[in-house]
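Journal club prep — side note

Before the paper discussion, L.F. wants everyone to see what a predicted structure for a comparable chain looks like in token form. Sequence:
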Amino acid sequence: MKLTGNSTGETAPVASNHEARQVAPAAADEIELLRRIEGGDESAFRELVDRHGRYLYGVAHALVGNAADAEDVVQETFVAVINGRYRAEASVRTWLVRILVKRAGMLRRSWFRKGRRTQSLQGALEHVTGGSGGAEAKLDLTTMLQSLSPEHRAVIVLRELEEMSYEEMARALGIPRGTVESRLHRAREELRRKFKGYL
């Protein structure tokens, strides 16, 4: 693993001096952890999984909607660490989330190639209401998230559930902050439109 790039080979946004000062001290021990993993230290790899595994699983479950696929996405994320490249412009956790979001997107695209579809909104409504469709029907969070596009789901999960800053989201998703803000606005509007009365 090289500590000079990111997992996709893309050029990531360069952090300002202020942001770099904020990130580097907290990440110093994790940078050392990644160096040990690069050297083949299995205990360092296990430590990285212990530190971030549960958090990444929560994000993955919100993105893909079920436990089995979430576990697969998290596993693929940690495998990617071995061959990935980390630059200390963001926290290790943000870097891991970026890898995870990409893996979740790849999984969803493979579903569509294979003809697999996520539960339709109508089917989800029937599932949670017992087919009644009554006004008292209580929609769960997974149903709401699954009704969104992968791009909109990602920004809602990272902002509303994981409480990331716009800057962290931009780094994790590999997009400009302005794009994060516009996607988030559209995602919130879509939820309000689809689930008026439930939110």
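L.F.'s comment for the group: The chain is about 70% helix and 0% strand. Keep this in mind when we get to the figures.
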